Amino acid sequence: MPRRRPGALRAARGDFEGRWPSAWARELPPVDRLSPAASAEVHWALRGRAREVEILLNMYRTFLRRPGNRLRLSPSLCESCPGCARDDVALVRDELAELYRGLPSEARHALGRVLHALDKEFRRRTLPASVPFRIGPDWRGRPYAWWHRRVYEGT
C-alpha cells in the first residue's frame, strides 16, 4: 500500500486543525481580549488581517457604548464603499461573522465567547423591527442574520 504524503494528510485534515501556529504568530501582540494561544491562531489563520478583527470589535463596542437605554441602528450612506459601509453596525457584525468562520477551532471558540457577550448586549439594547430594514436574501441567496432585523433610525 503506498504511503500518503504529509501534504495530502494535511489537506484531508484541513488547513489549521490540529496544527500549532508558527513562532512568528506567537510573537505578535494579542488580539482584543483573546488568550495568547487564540491570538496566535488568529494571526496565523488570517495572515495579516488580525488587526481588522480588533478594529471591527472596537467599532461594535463603540456602538454599544452609546448613551441611552435603547439604540437604533443607522444605515450606511454608501454600502459599496468599504469605509462608509462600516457606519452600519449590522454590516460590521457581518464582517466579524465572516472572519469568525475562517478561524481554527480554538480561536473560533475564543472569538465566539467575545461575540456572544457583545451580541447579548446588542439584543438587550436594540428592539426587533416589525418590518426589517432589509427584506429578502442577501447577494449570496442567504437570509439576513438576526442583527439586520433590528430597528433602524427613521423607521
Summarize the structure.
The protein is mainly α and 155 residues long.
Provide an overview of this structure.
- The chain is mainly alpha-helical and 155 residues long.
- Helices cover 49% and strands 0% of the residues.
- The protein contains seven helices and no strands.
- The chain has helices at residues 6-13, 23-26, 36-46, 50-64, 82-85, 89-101, 105-125.
- Helix 4 (50-64) packs parallel to helix 7 (105-125).
- The longest helix has 21 residues, at 105-125.
- It starts with 5 loop residues before the first helix and ends in a 30-residue tail after the last helix.
- 24% of the residues are buried.
- The model has no long low-confidence stretch (mean pLDDT 83).
N- and C-termini, Cα separation = 67 Å
Per DSSP, the total helix count is 7
Which of globular, elongated, flat, extended, rod-shaped describes the shape? elongated
Q: Any idea what the radius of gyration is?
A: 18 Å
What quaternary form is this? single chain
- How do the SSEs run, as a string of H and E? HHHHHHH
Determine the fraction of residues in helical runs and give it as a percent range.
Answer: 40-55%
Bin the strand percentage: under 5%
User: What composes the largest sheet?
Assistant: none
Strand tally is 0
Query: Which structural class is indicated by helix and strand composition?
Result: mainly alpha
Mean pLDDT comes to 83
Unreliable runs, pLDDT <50, ≥5 residues?
A: none
